[in-house]
Amino acid sequence: MSHLFDKKIVEAFGETLAAVAKESLPAAVEDVLATPGLTDHLARTVEREVQRFAETELGVPPILRFTDEFAFFDDYLRLAYESTGMSQKWCSRWWAHRSVRFRIRSMWLAYESLARRDPATCDEVFLRTIGDHHMPLLTGERSPMVACTSGHQPGKPLKSDPIEEGTL
């Protein structure tokens, strides 16, 4: 029913709307075209849409900000979360701790996803919702690296017995 009313309203106002648009539209378009940085914004939008199309429709791998979790750690994460002293548990061989590497890889993949969706806010959203959650777990009293105070101490994975037949 709503569609019927919409159609009738457009018919009733169509001539007037066309006249107003003919008069007002050129000035409105001119104002938008005069916006500082509009060309750069449009170019970025086109680039994002082409990349999104290439990824979703053609299967082209996404362009990443960081090549892997190691580059992400070296060029982003370690700068965002500086050492705060003795109470912070960290091992310079963090990559040798499987659980730490697993979390940092997860953080990197989440960051890349955020960066593609919304480049303007990805840093703030990542730090607030992902980094600020994981980093206290990686550097706090229960850190997998807690034993590495004087040097690297390998961690041990959680124990797991084989699943007994018929359990599932």
From TrEMBL:
- Region described as Disordered: spans on this chain: 148-168
Out of the domains of life, which is the source?
Bacteria
* Record-given protein name: DUF4913 domain-containing protein
Query: To which species is this protein native?
Result: Dietzia cinnamea
